[in-house]
From TrEMBL:
<dbReference type="Pfam" id="PF01613">
    <property type="entry name" value="Flavin_Reduct"/>
</dbReference>
<dbReference type="GO" id="GO:0042602">
    <property type="term" value="F:riboflavin reductase (NADPH) activity"/>
</dbReference>
<dbReference type="InterPro" id="IPR012349">
    <property type="entry name" value="Split_barrel_FMN-bd"/>
</dbReference>
<dbReference type="InterPro" id="IPR050268">
    <property type="entry name" value="NADH-dep_flavin_reductase"/>
</dbReference>
<feature type="domain" description="Flavin reductase like">
    <location>
        <begin position="25"/>
        <end position="171"/>
    </location>
</feature>
<dbReference type="GO" id="GO:0010181">
    <property type="term" value="F:FMN binding"/>
</dbReference>
<protein>
    <submittedName>
        <fullName>Flavin reductase</fullName>
    </submittedName>
</protein>
<dbReference type="InterPro" id="IPR002563">
    <property type="entry name" value="Flavin_Rdtase-like_dom"/>
</dbReference>
<dbReference type="GO" id="GO:0006208">
    <property type="term" value="P:pyrimidine nucleobase catabolic process"/>
</dbReference>
<keyword id="KW-0560">Oxidoreductase</keyword>
Length: 179
């Protein structure tokens, strides 16, 4: 009995620590993108806020993908994917590729305009940056895999970034604009 109370306390502490961690991370403003892959293992896309630059020489980026997401396996197996960074006008696309609440059909590529890149990769029209990658390392980390991709091709467009902060989509505002 005493042991059960102790186990309950530990579980409670772990739940509180987890909630606090999520709360802390909700305050980290992050750019939003859609990672897309197509090939023999299938066509998938997923909204991510975990994209980060790893290296410029050679150019490499990472994205953290939940191992339970259907895209996790195909991303490595197809050997080619794009990281499409979004603008505020594309927030609804981010919602759709986040598959939340089953509100939208899964992998609804019809909700945006796509074209094939020089390497046959799928690129989102009007993304503020599209990075075409081949996976170089896949590192298991907790519930996720860190997919580190070598960037083979980069396309940029001049527009503002879509951010996610405090559980909502927002846009960056320069400090001089709010003075
Ligand atoms: C703003 C935002 C950022 C997200 N970032 C990530 C991420 O970096 N990695 C991830 O695995 N899931 C992330 N998700 C969750 C996935 O988009 C979502 O769980 C997934 O698309 C669900 O569909 P699935 O059933 O195909 O996995 C994010 C969701 C939102 C709304």
């Amino acid at each position: 009995m005493a042991q059960d109370v102790y186990a309950d306390d530990v579980r409670m502490e772990q739940a509180e620590a987890r909630a606090l961690f999520l709360e802390a991370m909700s305050r980290v403003a992050a750019p939003v993108g859609i990672v897309v892959t197509d090939g023999p293992a299938g066509r998938y896309g997923i909204t991510v806020s975990s994209v980060a630059s790893v290296s410029a020489d050679p150019p490499m980026v990472l994205a953290c993908i939940n191992q339970r997401s259907p895209i996790a396996g195909p991303l490595a197996a197809n050997r080619l994917y794009t990281v499409n960074m979004l603008s505020p006008a594309q927030a609804e696309m981010a919602e759709r590729f986040a598959g939340r609440d089953g509100r939208y059909p899964a992998y609804d590529f019809g909700c945006g305009a796509w074209h094939a890149g020089e390497l046959g990769e799928i690129c989102l029209e009007d993304a503020i940056a599209t990075l075409t990658c081949t996976p170089e390392q896949v590192v298991q980390a907790g519930t996720h895999v860190i997919v580190i991709g070598r960037v083979l091709r980069t396309v940029v467009r001049d527009d503002s970034a879509l951010l996610y902060c405090r559980r909502e989509f927002c846009r960056p505002v320069g400090l001089s604009a709010s003075a």
